[in-house]
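Model it.
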Amino acid sequence: MIDIEIGRTPTGKRSFPLAFRIEFLRRWDACVERGVRTRLLREHALVESTVRRLTAARDRGEWTTSMVAAAEKPGRRMDSRDRAELARLRTENEALRRKVEQAEAAQEILGKPSSSWSR
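Modeled.
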């Protein structure tokens, strides 16, 4: 069994990560005994047409192109909701810092109460 998780598209179709495709086809190509390929297909709930598409894409060099594109792609981009949340959190953080500074200044001005005051 290949330990790479298979994802889902928004429409519910399975999405095979590039690492899964490479590992699956490495194992597919290594199958020489009778029935081993069928067992591999069943193990991953795949059909031969999917394997034909994977091998065709590999042979056309599509994976090399996608690997280069993935390597050059910068980190995860934030969408507008994430940006709004980040701005809100920064504003809240700054307000809390000001409150802490005010509380510390008030404590410094007032000083610690002496033990005779607390009786």
